[in-house]
Amino acid sequence: MNRLDGNAMAGDLREIFAFDVTAAEYTCAGCGAAEAIGALMLWGQEMGRVARCPHCDDVVLRLVRATDRVFLDVRGAVRLELPLAGS
Amino acid sequence: MARAALSGRLIWRAATVTEARQESPSARTLVLDVPDWPGHLPGQHVDVRLTAPDGYSAQRSYSIASAWRDEKSATVELTVQRLDDGEVSPYLTDVLEVGDQIELRGPVGGWFVWREAQRRPVLLLGGGSGVVPLMAMVRARGLARARQPFRLIYSVRTPDDVLYRAELPRHVRDDPGFDLYLNYTRKAPEGSPNAPMRVNVATINTHGWPAEFEPDCYVCGPTTFVEATADILVALGHDPKRIRTERFGGTS
């Protein structure tokens, strides 16, 4: 299966959130590295995606789409840091 | 609050093809009219969704090739490379006609983008149709008459595969501080001093920026190209935090 970057998730995340999550920085629950969501290693397609930390391979984020809802699992990130609009 | 959050979400819009330009035997640029287009930054992409009569749908991401001009402009250009076993791209390159509509969502992605406020030199590395978002950056820089030095290393298989082949030399001529190096991996043009080869340490060392300049690096292309190239940049001393990558799903 083809590996992509976290930025390929931008559309799916932007459908859920009012801001661009791919420009946010996560802190990895596994190794503590801080990195842009856009830099995650991404697998899967629009029905289900798994994003791993490029520093330790731990799963940071999972996004699963059903017919009428979306499941977002972010247990691999202990925090998100977001640039505010205009900054 | 909830209302404001909802209105900020992304929706699918119907985009109309107003023009189609063949860029190479296997790539085509679609000029799309998208009502209420909010504008975009170079490097951003859109998601395209095709739905069959039986309800089956397929979604793909495509980089925006054009720079955004002004508020009056509702035009977005996508350059699509045909993947012969692809589900979506052959439809976009061979079937879709002027006047047809497709579903589109975007612009999205705020990470693999270049903003004019970035003052550092820029090194762009594109493999195949990975040049598309980099072209948006080159166009945006030209449009803004920006002065940050840009270098583009663009790797293609053969001379026939070069996208924007008429426009790129114009940027070299008209945009001060923009340099282009074309690398051929399978067949070089007649009379070229270089044998075909993949982008290697020497290519980037010669045609990129020294790591001491701390350039912002953007790498886009097939996974193998992106990984090899990003590894070379790190080996040459570039800060991994300044290297942004965008792999695309197609095979190289």
Automatic annotation (TrEMBL), chain A:
Extract the InterPro entries matched here.
DUF6510
Q: Record's Pfam families?
A: DUF6510
Name of the protein described by the UniProt record: DUF6510 family protein
Tell me which species this is from.
Paractinoplanes rhizophilus
